[in-house]
């Protein structure tokens, strides 16, 4: 893809971006406010708890800019094979972006007839403001930090899914986000499920070059109304020189169920805040995370399970393996508000450190203000067990085969929780690609 | 040609602590040997040394299989050469299904020259064989889908080890207390299964404290280990005697070995406390 011009992340770039968009005034107002805040904010400081383990001194925003592109510039045939979650899946609709620019959007007619909306967020903000405006930025805080504010000001393209009351989307929907080498993606994903609605959304992020550079400054908002049921899968395989800063949040109401699976394999540096707010009684969230790093990758995930209503259940499991000189940081929190009695919260992070130079930071946390709750948390960090290897070798496995098997088995517990076959297979394959021949 | 596993003047240390002090033992294919002895005498050490556990250093002596130097082989090469051990406490490998583990193991052992990454035994063929073996051992088919030894009861672990013995069909097998932790019915079943799979079909070295496992596997030889040495060898009547009367006679008859045994036990207890 040829990139002739870009909008820089400065005042001139911002004005140029606004001039190139035809979007409703309320959205422009949101952007302006966010831009002002971004300008006024400093970069996160190292001593701030969220950034104490994540060094962003090498990150230079000036190296990146939003592409000024027409859809015709984007070549789809090249990017299609990058998608892994769609293998053998009958999809109900899909959205493709390249460097944040929407190159393809489709939704099956029967779903559209039921009132399902799935497509470009900027276009739908224009044509369906009554669906977008009440929810946009309700599960996202543009003032979280400078990255969040910049995202809100400069978000491009983006995807919007709306499922009306009681409608069941029986085929998965797919979002494919592609970054070209050196590209920038600031897309915003907004998902709204009305009462009793059901949907499965498969979202994967890839770079055209596995070693590619780039910047992703993103946000995901999942808004669930009472009794709705969402399965959301996010496979992150950005190129290994890509920066990935994201705010990801679900707000789930009474009797909702959310299964959120994250696989974080790519990027050079990731700093992600992932949170689930349980705001209505009887809501249930399950979060599954896989991280597998290599080289000098640094992936930092800060997670929150925030219980704001009584009798909710949150179940959280992240498993991570680190190779070479890579490092993962997981800092988790279960927060229980005074009103959230009968909370059942679970939080666990297991790490398998595969090299002497790799590192895993695992920091679970509880903040409980109600007195009738059950919250458990755990964290383990270990190496591959020599006794396991010896046992397997006594059964004819070479050392390499044994290690490979043990590492794959380590992640199996996550796969066992995933209820979508294509996702299980894609994750299995992604991990198999990553597993080395360990000596 | 009859296969022979030959252990000569074997000395084994763990760390700098000598455990085995000159063990001589010849197993011919088709023979069953019982290895008995009080705790701390070195029975499991012999098994682990035969398999090549990296923590067990052979300081002198030799182990050969049909004249080939076993000590030169890595543990997986020993397995592929036809040596097996049923572990007293097998390791759990979470996330790895018994069936997948066994398919890979069986392929490697049956095709000793297989290179990493080469094809495994076809799934259908393997499943059929596994199902037959499991039915034969009266094991629930659910077992194959469970993770290797993960959350298994003591009895289930021992049964899983016997299943592996059945699938891998080694030339020589060391069974390390495959009866411990089992109730009387389970021991009888284990004894029958082992007889069915291995008695007179392999060279068996059965490490046990009791004679129940030997019921269906009458030993051609019974060896008594004390203080890291085989102090006495007899027939199956020796196993019966030790089961009924314990090791008092042996301890009195070999005071030097008994002193070493006590010393090792005391050191073990000390380490356990520290």
UniProtKB/TrEMBL annotation, chain B:
The segment(s) forming the ABC transporter domain are 5-252
Keyword Nucleotide-binding found = yes
The alphabetical list of record keywords is:
ATP-binding, Nucleotide-binding
Kindly give the SUPFAM superfamilies that the UniProt entry links to this protein: P-loop containing nucleoside triphosphate hydrolases
Q: What InterPro entries does this protein's entry cite?
A: AAA+_ATPase, ABC_transporter-like_ATP-bd, ABC_transporter-like_CS, FeS-cluster_ATPase_SufC, P-loop_NTPase
Task: Tell me one Pfam family matched here.
Answer: ABC_tran
Q: Which family does it belong to?
A: Belongs to the ABC transporter superfamily. Ycf16 family.
Protein's name in the database: Vegetative protein 296
Recorded source organism is Stieleria magnilauensis
Native organism taxonomy:
Bacteria, Pseudomonadati, Planctomycetota, Planctomycetia, Pirellulales
Q: Which gene encodes it?
A: yurY
């Amino acid at each position: 893809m040829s990139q002739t011009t870009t909008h820089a992340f400065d005042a001139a770039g911002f004005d140029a971006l606004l001039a190139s968009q035809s979007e409703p005034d309320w959205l422009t107002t949101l952007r302006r406010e966010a831009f002002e805040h971004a300008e006024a904010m400093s970069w996160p400081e190292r001593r701030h708890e969220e950034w104490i383990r994540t060094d962003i001194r090498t990150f230079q925003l000036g190296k990146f800019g939003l592409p000024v592109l027409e859809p015709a510039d984007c070549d789809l045939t090249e990017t299609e094979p990058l998608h892994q979650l769609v293998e053998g899946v009958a999809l109900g609709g899909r959205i493709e972006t390249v460097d944040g620019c929407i190159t393809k959007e489709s939704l099956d007619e029967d779903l559209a007839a039921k009132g399902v909306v799935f497509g470009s967020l900027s276009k739908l903000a224009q044509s369906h403001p009554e669906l977008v405006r009440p929810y946009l930025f309700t599960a996202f805080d543009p003032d979280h930090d400078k990255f969040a504010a910049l995202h809100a000001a400069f978000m491009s393209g983006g995807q919007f899914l709306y499922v009306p009351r009681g409608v069941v989307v029986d085929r998965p929907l797919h979002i494919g986000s592609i970054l070209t080498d050196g590209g920038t993606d600031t897309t915003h994903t907004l998902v709204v499920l009305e009462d009793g609605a059901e949907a499965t959304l498969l979202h994967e992020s890839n770079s055209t070059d596995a070693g590619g550079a780039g910047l992703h400054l993103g946000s995901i908002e999942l808004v669930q109304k009472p009794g709705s049921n969402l399965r959301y899968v996010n496979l992150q395989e950005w190129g290994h020189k890509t920066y990935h800063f994201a705010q990801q949040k679900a707000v789930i109401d009474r009797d909702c169920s959310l299964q959120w699976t994250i696989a974080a394999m790519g990027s050079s540096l990731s700093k992600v805040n992932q949170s689930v707010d349980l705001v209505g009684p009887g809501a249930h969230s399950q979060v599954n995370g896989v991280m597998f790093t290599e080289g000098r990758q640094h992936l930092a995930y800060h997670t929150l399970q925030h219980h704001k209503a009584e009798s909710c259940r949150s179940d959280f499991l992240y498993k991570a393996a680190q190779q070479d000189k890579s490092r993962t940081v997981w800092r988790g929190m279960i927060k229980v508000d005074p009103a959230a009695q009968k909370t059942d919260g679970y939080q666990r992070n297991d790490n398998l450190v595969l090299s002497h130079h790799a590192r895993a930071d695992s920091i679970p946390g509880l903040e409980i203000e109600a007195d009738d709750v059950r919250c458990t948390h755990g964290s383990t960090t270990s190496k591959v067990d020599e006794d396991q290897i010896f046992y397997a070798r006594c059964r004819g496995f070479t050392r390499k085969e044994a290690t490979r098997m043990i590492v794959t088995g380590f992640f199996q517990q996550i796969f066992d929780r995933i209820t979508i076959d294509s996702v299980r297979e894609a994750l299995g394959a992604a991990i198999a690609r990553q597993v080395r021949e360990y000596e | 040609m009859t296969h022979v596993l030959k252990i000569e003047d074997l000395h084994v240390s763990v760390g700098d602590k000598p455990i085995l002090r000159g063990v001589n033992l010849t197993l011919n294919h088709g023979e069953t040997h019982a290895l008995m002895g009080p705790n701390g005498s070195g029975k499991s050490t012999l098994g682990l040394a035969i398999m090549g556990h990296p923590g067990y250093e052979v300081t002198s002596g030799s182990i050969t299989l049909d004249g080939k130097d076993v000590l030169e082989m890595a543990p997986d090469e020993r397995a592929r050469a036809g040596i097996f051990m049923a572990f007293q406490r097998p390791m759990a490998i979470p996330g790895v299904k018994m069936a997948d583990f066994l398919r890979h193991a069986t392929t490697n052992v049956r095709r000793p020259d297989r290179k990493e990454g080469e094809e495994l035994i076809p799934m259908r063929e393997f499943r059929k064989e596994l199902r037959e073996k499991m039915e034969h051992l009266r094991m629930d088919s659910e077992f194959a889908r469970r993770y290797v030894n993960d959350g298994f009861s003591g009895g289930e672990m021992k049964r899983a080890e016997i299943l592996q013995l059945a699938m891998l069909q080694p030339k020589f097998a060391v069974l390390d207390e495959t009866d411990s932790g089992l109730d009387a019915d389970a021991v009888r079943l284990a004894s029958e299964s082992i007889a069915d799979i291995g008695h007179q079909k392999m060279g068996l070295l059965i490490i046990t404290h009791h004679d129940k496992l030997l019921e269906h596997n009458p030993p051609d030889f019974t060896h008594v280990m004390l203080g890291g040495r085989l102090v006495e060898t007899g027939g199956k009547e020796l196993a019966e005697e030790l089961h009924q009367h314990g090791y008092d006679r042996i301890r009195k008859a070999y005071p030097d070995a008994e002193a070493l045994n006590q010393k090792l036990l005391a050191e073990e207890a000390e380490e356990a406390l520290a």
